[in-house]
Amino acid sequence: MTPVGDSDSGRTQRRSGPLRAVVGMRRAWRRLSPFFRSSRSGIVLLVALAMVTGLAEAALLAIIATMAVSLAEGDQVITVGLGPVSVDMARNTTFAVAVGLAAARAGLQLALAYLPALMSSRVLTDLRIQLFEAFTASAWSVKAKERDGAFQTLMTQNVTNTAQAVTALGLGITAMIMFLTMTAAAFTQSFVAAAVFLTAALALFFVLRPLSRRLRRHAKMLSTEAMSFTNTVQEVVQVAEETEVFGATDTYRRDFREQSESVRRPYVRTRFLATGLPGLYQSVALLLLVLALIAISLSGTAQLASLAAVILMLIRALTYAQQIQSTLTGIDERIPFMHQIVDALERYRQEPQQDGDAPLGDVGDLALSHVSFAYNAESDVLHDVSFAVRRGEAIGIVGPSGAGKSTIVQILLRLRDPQSGAVLVNGQDVRGTRRVDWQARVSYVPQASQVVWGTVTDNIRFHRDWITDEQVVAAARRAHIHDDISAWPQGYDTLIGQRANAVSGGQRQRIALARALVAEPQVLVLDEPTSALDVRSEELVQRSLQAIKQDTIIILVAHRLSTLSVCDRIVVMVDGRVSAVGSHTDLMKQSDFFREVHEITARQGS
Ligand SMILES: Nc1ncnc2c1ncn2[C@@H]1O[C@H](COP(=O)(O)OP(=O)(O)OP(=O)(O)O)[C@@H](O)[C@H]1O
Question: Where is the ABC transmembrane type-1 domain (predicted)?
């Protein structure tokens, strides 16, 4: 899909009206046509089927008109004419042919309804997979920037709207072919009437286009409002506890009412235009039919049967013209949702997760070498950070709030890449190595671990299907959570979630530790793992870390000195720089920050 550049839109603004419209349509088509690519073979089949159905219907209408006139006149032989073909048939044969054509048309109609459904289901599935894969393959910096609820809205509302646009396209193509066939058949019956009708119908179509454009504008507003509305709804569930405690419910209610109102306005206009436009088209189109009849009367067409046939065909053509209008409207109102999907796909694909191709062996030692990092151009967060750690060693990272500790963790986990310097594994730049190898060797316990809705086993295994139940239990033992789990009536099959069926903070943290330990990592990174724990739980986590230490590299970010008891050395970070590195005793001599924290801890303890 081609991104739409600013310079392009700048050029477009200088162009005159009609040219701008054409350029705008071409640009929109370039962006949106990939949505219809998978439907190409379906469209070809649809066109062929619609042509056959149109011909069957035109023949049926010609037979009905001729039969009606012949029956009124008591004829036994009926002459049916459609274009150059004219056939004499006995009355009963004509009935049989008419029944046969009606049945064939019904069958074809079913196929014509099935194909758009098939095309849109394909688009629905393909698009969801594309979005999911693009999002999951994007760099962490892209994922971290995505607003809560935005991805969910894309996957549900936007994808559904796009699939509906594809259905509308399929139905619109059918209606277009049927319209053309019916008008062509009407030409064979009465050239003048069909010509008047067609010209007026085309003129009407172009007259009503500005209303369609207005519809699209309102639909765009609606899609934007809907996105922020979903975000608010998502947020209100996430922060329900804080909202209640801080008495923010009234403000939330007011904001919610305002947002609901702002969705209502574009919604009314979109729905009004979406249903009103086809209705308007139908009324004006009936007027066209009267015009066609006036043309017939002026041109003096005498044949009663062909007059009846042309009226029937033009009435059917009108129905199809109205269907074309409503499917165009249906596509128009969904275009903004499709643009949002294109934007999101571009955003996700612009910055893919980087990967290397060198295999990674066992991690013997790990180092940050002259690492500098900035989240944005305005401020550097890490400056020339270097430290090393080897297997069997635990290193702590301490420092005041905002010193860059969590940023180091993200770099170590390869969620972000340093702007300069490197993370070295056994002396090799980790960026050149395979990410899967890194993920298999490195594990992580975050500050606030997430529990997913599922059993305790699901939570420890965490989508790594190769992990056995025995390994789950062994990891739970090492994380000192096995006894708690065993005491629950359903044991490892207990259903837990982030809020409903929640486990305690200490249990959740130890489940997260079991999740990190279950794949037997060679590097374990922990970001404030015990900050929310009581002393007993903290002691249990400390024991777990001591037990695995000799085979593992442990990197532990901490605020409290008690957490650091497992560490052999401690790195003190201040303002994004390494201010000191050493043992507890060394740092008491070298680091003002460390001494201060030590004194505060001692005062609190006494
Ligand atoms: N996603 C981000 N975008 C922009 N700036 C960020 C982002 N995350 C962190 N920062 C900034 O980077 C600096 C370092 O943040 P970091 O979270 O690494 O500090 P920290 O030492 O872990 O702090 P704390 O102890 O409070 O968790 C801070 O100034 C912070 O505002």
Answer: 44-333
